[in-house]
Amino acid sequence: MSTQSSHPETVSVLDQIKQRTEHLHALRQFCDPYGSAFLITDFIEGIHEKFSSIQGETHSQEKVRTAGRLMAVRLHGKAAFGDLVSSSSKIQIYFKQDHLGEAQWNFFELLDMGDIIGIEGSVFRTRRGELSILIDKITPLSKSLYPLPEKWHGLKDVEVRYRQRYLDLMVNPEVRKIFLLRSALIAKMRSFLDRRGFHEMETPVMSVTAGGAEAKPFITHHNALDLDLHLRIATELHLKRLLVGMLEKVYEIGRIFRNEGISTRHNPEFTSLELYEAYSDYEGMMKITEDLIVHLADELIGKREIPYQGKTIQLNPPFERITYSDALRQFGGILLSDIRDLEKAKHAAKNLKISLDPKAHVGHYIDKIFEAVVEPNLIQPTFILDYPIEISPLAKRKSDDPSLTYRFELFISNMEMANAFSELNDPFDQKERFKAQLKLREAGDETAHSMDEDFLAALEYGMPPAGGLGIGIDRLCMLFTDSASIREVILFPLLRPAANEMS
């Protein structure tokens, strides 16, 4: 391990790359520096648990074999301490020349920060009380030809972090924790639904018609069929076909694609959970939403009070409930009945400095006005109930007021987390709403629903009354990891290509 490798600030990056390449060529004289499978007897996190009782400077008689990335080395003459890091843990390792022998010490001197190595040795605790491994044997497994960024103290440049997520994961352990938690969240979400009798399904990502949400789709072309296809903007209409087919409790966790803007809360490609339960309604969906989120908090965080961006979020049920019209009146002094008139809606939007396409329909104005005056006030978990029909083309009308629907959205820390309906199963009502949406499309609204004749045919065979729920998994991950941006919880968020990628 050379002094250049230990102190990269003293030499240029090109010099470091040159030296690492020389180390690679030297290693090839003795072994394959990109080794094959390595038998691990104990993973690093398991070593900490298994040998936690070792006290003093006692050495275990049991040998361990483990592997990881060499992330730090501290030289002490003819000995050195280093950090061996895995996905979720690290352990100190001890290289000692007279213990390793000449050949193995030569291997050590050809290692660089970032190299992946396998080791064999005995576990002991140092005078300072740190559990460590005295190395008997080193097996090079992969050479790192580039120096790690920012002296290995953490990669901070968000542009580099998102473009080269592998570096971000390598040098920022808190980022690894975010994505391990995301993986655990999805696994626990699946087990929660499976235990409740739901069945996971897979529906098409490409289809002739994109439906289930008001969004602009991405369009691709199938050469063999000479057919334009849409990437799905929701899984809703296919999953509801399954209810018709007598699969009564179904869900899908999948990628959704919407050709829309990018922000701290929006990525054109994201992950959603959608579930549908026959013979339920939006009250049933509220209960399962509360139960699921509380379950995830208990399992992932171990408590129901969680920090998010400087605020404490209370996840104890029942969550607050307020109707859409009451929320407009309470937080904005606005009557829903007033802004259902397009001219009045435009006037209200102008006063709120909301800018919309002049051809936007009244539903867009209602939605944007709500977003401006209500959402900033929804910090603690709050169900907003009974959405106007103008922005709910797939939800069942309320029996006591057909201008409203059995629909709710759940907001936490100003973010929409869930959207649910008592599902519309009347084919005649659905067809009329599709026709209204079609008129909006013809008027230039690319986010309005298309006419899905096959879905209408499915409804005509009879779909049971049902509740449906959609949850944005990325935003839920933001909440549970205290992340301000959706890009922090998506491994490879969409970015504009860098200049060198466009040439």
How would you characterize this protein structure?
The structure is a single chain. By secondary structure, the chain is an alpha+beta fold. The chain has two domains: 3-147, Nucleic acid-binding proteins (OB fold (Dihydrolipoamide Acetyltransferase, E2P), Beta Barrel); 171-319 and 380-497, Bira Bifunctional Protein, Domain 2 (BirA Bifunctional Protein, domain 2, 2-Layer Sandwich). The chain has 18 helices and 20 strands. It has helices at residues 3-6, 13-28, 44-50, 97-100, 102-109, 158-163, 165-171, 173-195, 236-244, 282-301, 324-332, 336-339, 342-351, 362-373, 427-442, 453-461, 473-481, 499-502; strands at 59-76, 79-85, 90-96, 116-125, 131-142, 199-200, 206-207, 219-222, 227-231, 249-257, 269-278, 305-308, 311-314, 320-323, 382-385, 397-398, 401-405, 407-412, 415-422, 466-472. The strands form five sheets. It has an eight-stranded mixed β-sheet with strand order 6-10-11-20-19-18-15-14, sandwiched between helices. The chain has a five-stranded mixed beta barrel with strand order 1-2-3-5-4. A hairpin with a 4-residue loop joins β8 and β9. α13 (342-351) runs parallel beside α14. The longest helix is centred in the middle third of the chain and has 23 residues, at 173-195. It is elongated. Mean pLDDT is 93; it is low at 3-8.
